[in-house]
Amino acid sequence: MREQRAPLAPEGVESRVSVADVLAAKARLRRYLPDTPLHYAERFGVWLKLENLQRTGSYKVRGALNALLAGIERGDERPVICASAGNHAQGLAWAAWRLGVTAIAVMPTAAPATKVAGVKHWGGTVRLHGNSYDEAYAFALNLAQENGWRFLSAFDDPDVIAGQGTVGLELAPHAPDVVIVPIGGGGLASGVALALKSQGVRVVGAQVEGVDSMVRAIAGDTRAIDPVPTLADGVKVKIPGFITRRLCASLLDDVVIVREAELRETLVRLALEEHLIAEGAGALALAAGRRVAGKRKCAVVSGGNIDASVLAGLLSDIRPRPPRKPRRRTSERLRSGPQGRNSSSNFPHTSFIATAGEETPR
């Protein structure tokens, strides 16, 4: 059997993407998508970018919507087909509904029921095929070629990468010193790194042990992997993209590998301690946070589309370790002015609230 390796370049697709493309994406998306909030997870000591609160419950809608809008600007209003483990399909379905474009999504047969239902809710056509993202990808690409449809990669497309990069643009004003992002195919990591690296922000990727195709590709091993079973179905990619592989290799400061047990515990702690619902891939960056140094760390919670039965099972089976005890406060961050009067003019205006003594991104 011929060994499967990473593609050299997406056929018929411009492979360059720049910071200017990310800025253009932000201008397009401003009318349609809200900025997502930041939340300080005090027990983790990490700021969280809550993409689980974005339209369709994931950052993926950013790239899908930007790609459709950019295509319309170029005069391309063909039906659009994608392959997706779920979130890209939901994002595309919502974007297509919003713009009046026909959308078809090919999803693996084991795709979470909540994600399949989400695609159908927004009027997308669902075709279930194959046992992995890569099998769904090959089938979708064949359908696109047969019918003359536009194929939209979940990650290896300049318009998609630029759209995902708007996550980084929203973080930039808050001056984190390091941002941690989950990696499947690498679209989010590539876009965020493009948006932030010129500002001196470190960008660190996170992958699950045994589902680490990007780490291997950066090291020069572009063979397809056989991903192990994982809660993080959204990052279960055998081969990363050509564009994303090149960008991640040149822009990421590091990639951290997370054990499955760490991922599961982090997801449960998010629910119990921070009252936030994340899917497996959504908790991945935070799970990696303990191995990443930084005074103002930010982890991207990339999505919250988890089946209720899966979440219930995790909450029933996993007993997280007690969180670290808070350190004794040596000073209050919000203190009175020199004459004992409160002086708000000494503090910069921010879009989020910090409790006394927290480390707040500037």
UniProtKB/TrEMBL annotation:
Its EC number is 4.3.1.19. One of its GO terms (biological process) is L-threonine catabolic process. SUPFAM superfamilies: Tryptophan synthase beta subunit-like PLP-dependent enzymes. InterPro entries: Ser/Thr_Dehydratase, TrpB-like_PALP, TrpB-like_PALP_sf. Residues 317-362 are annotated as: Disordered. One of its GO terms (molecular function) is L-serine ammonia-lyase activity. Coiled coil: none annotated. Residues 339-353 have a biased composition (Polar residues). It comes from the Bacteria. Residues 35-301 form the Tryptophan synthase beta chain-like PALP domain. Its cofactor is pyridoxal 5'-phosphate. Keywords: Lyase, Pyridoxal phosphate. PANTHER family: L-THREONINE DEHYDRATASE CATABOLIC TDCB, THREONINE DEHYDRATASE, MITOCHONDRIAL-RELATED. Belongs to the serine/threonine dehydratase family. This is Threonine dehydratase. It comes from Stenotrophomonas koreensis.
